[in-house]
Amino acid sequence: MSILPQPTIESVLQQTRKETGLPPSELRVLMTHITGFDRVGLVTKGNRELPMDQLSAFKSLAAKRQHGEPIAYLVQQKEFYSRPFFVDPRVLIPRPETEELVEHALGFLQNKSTENLLTRVLDIGCGSGAIAISLALENPILEVTATDISADALWVAQHNANELGAKNVRFIQSDLFAGLLNQTPALAFDLICSNPPYIEQGDIHLSQGDLRFEPSLALTDGGDGLRFYRETARNSPTLLRPGGGVLVEHGHDQQGAVKALFAMPPYVHVQGLPDLAGTPRFVFAHI
Ligand SMILES: C[S@@+](CC[C@H](N)C(=O)[O-])C[C@H]1O[C@@H](n2cnc3c(N)ncnc32)[C@H](O)[C@@H]1O
Fold it and tell me: Which one of 67, 82, 115 terminates a domain?
């Protein structure tokens, strides 16, 4: 009895492409994840046989992808600010626009003089920890505090901090400001930043694309999409050092409404900023 040869990596890629209609680039990402070979390795080792266990794991991932599951969840990784973050359905997949929030935050903090005090940053709703950990690693003399209401998200964020070697970040479970106000000694930050859930309840996008698979807690505030900005504008002054700032990311059509929420004392300057695509995306407010 002759044993049938196992299909090769390349033949599996081609066959799966025909069967699923998935783009070759996506299939290669999944195959890279399964085999551990990088993109070049997939080409140079394309005529190697794919072991049975890897074949069935690959087929299973391709079927899930065909169903719409985000690639990042399938390979449990998303690059953010040039670092690989572990992600799974417990956390939002960090978006490229949010890297620009990190840029703006670093720019503001660089110009900050805190007279021998360590510069402190708070990230509200940290999810995977993308913002907090990137800030902590880019500027190791920062003291970063990151919060989330979700214990699951905090587990992922702590895991990422450990894996990426961010020692200057601590995580606190808190419903918005509830666990931060009335602390002794009082908490005080130079910058409060946040990419909160801002999609309005019932928005059609919640039932489309990647968003179907992401935690609803990370996407919508269950109301008009502005609840987190209202709370942040109201509570941040209590937690800010003199000259401190608040930097928030928001939806493409929310800049006017978010700016209006910060247009009150003690904020002295409120600025709307676009993302690289030119879409109004961030509001920065100073006290
Ligand atoms: C849009 S995600 C942002 C995640 C991450 N900062 C990023 O930019 O990729 C919003 C995060 O806010 C968290 N969140 C939702 N409600 C919250 C609340 N009441 N208090 C604190 N965090 C909350 C969610 O669990 C989620 O991780």
Answer: 67
Q: Ligand 1 pocket, 251 CB below 6 A?
A: no
Whether 127 is in a domain gets the answer: yes
CA distance 76 to 84: 10
Beta strands in 149-252 (DSSP E): 169-173, 189-194, 240-249
84 found inside a domain: no
Of 102, 131, 148, the residue with max ligand 1 atoms within 8 A of its CB, to mutate for a pocket test, comes to: 148
212 and 172 belong to one structural domain: yes
pLDDT tens digits, one per residue of 105-164: 999 998 776 666 789 999 999 999 999 999 999 999 999 999 999 999 999 999 999 999
Nearest to 196 by CA among 72, 282, 96: 282
Q: Residue 265 sits in which domain range?
A: 92-286
**What does pTM read for this prediction?**
0.95
Q: What pLDDT was estimated at residue 2?
A: 63
161, two tokens: 């901090």
The alpha carbon of 272 is separated from its chain's Cα centroid by a whole number of angstroms, namely 21
What's 220's DSSP letter?
A: B
CATH number of the domain bearing residue 166: 3.40.50.150
Ligand 1 binding pocket includes 253 (Cβ within 6 Å): no
d(CA 131, CA 193): 9
Number of domains in the chain: 2
Confirm whether 188 is domain-assigned.
Answer: yes
Kindly give the distance from the C-alpha atom of residue 281 to the centroid of ligand 1, in angstroms, as a whole number: 17
For residue range 233-277, list pLDDT tens digits in order: 999 999 999 999 999 999 999 999 999 999 999 999 999 999 999
